[in-house]
Prior knowledge:
MetI-like fold; 2 strands; 16 helices; mainly alpha
Amino acid sequence: MSSVIHSAVVEAPPLARQKPARRGKPGSVVLAPYLLSLPLWLVLGIFLLIPILTIITVSFWDDQGTGFVPTFIFDNYRDSLGSWVTWKTYLSTLRFAVIVWVLTLSIGFTVAYYLSFHVRSTFWQMLLFQLCAIPFLTSNIIRMISWIPFLGRNGLLNSALMDMGLTDHPLEFLLYSPFAVILAFVHLYTLFMVVPIFNTMMRIDRALIEAARDGGAGPVSVLRHVVIPLSMPGIAIGTIFVVTLVMGDFVTVQMMSGGQSASVGLMLRNSISLLQYPEAAAQAVVLLLTVLMMVWAILRVVDIRKEL
Length: 308
């Protein structure tokens, strides 16, 4: 019996050794992420980095009236930052940005909160959200122009107020004024605040709200200690959208103020229309740095990586 077992063990073929899986060359593994991201870097380089570098280069050129001299001077920045008109224009633009941000945040947060927590059906949520977005499918210019017959001296609003006896003369501040500019900004950019806040609120775990209510928290406490802190990434994203758009806008300011209000974007456009390209490039660089510092400050307060 032992001889049979011994012969079976001797005659059994040895176990085949498993061959290690083939691995790619170390160089190809290292280069693979860079090769995959190469198209993105090409697009960013051609359409973003090269134009920005061109603007920065032109901002140091000298404008001699008859042409531009490629040189390296700081006169354009000195003339721009040394003028009180520039500082006054920046203060006016920042005032517009702050007021529009407060109004769009108030409206956007209210709309997003209602759609997220008071509309139970997903169908009605999407339907109401689409109704909010329908006006934004038209051109900004058309939506701005539509305010003129409504807010004008002989417009619908003034006519209605005088017919009701609330005023005996047309209200002059309704059109071609800072009020009209702010109204147009809020109308144009509120959706940019609604979308990210609504997206953030829809991700909030409803069990957290139920736990807060079971713990005795009222609606205000739930809103203050649960909803608002968890909605901060969406608020930050909406703030970046609204602030950057207002800082660079010039069409709205020109059309709705009738040339009576100034903005940084309008100052830039005026320099370009006068063919003062080096000065306009310097103003664009200063505006870009200002907006980047504002975005950096927002990102230091709120971590939007939770939303991305």
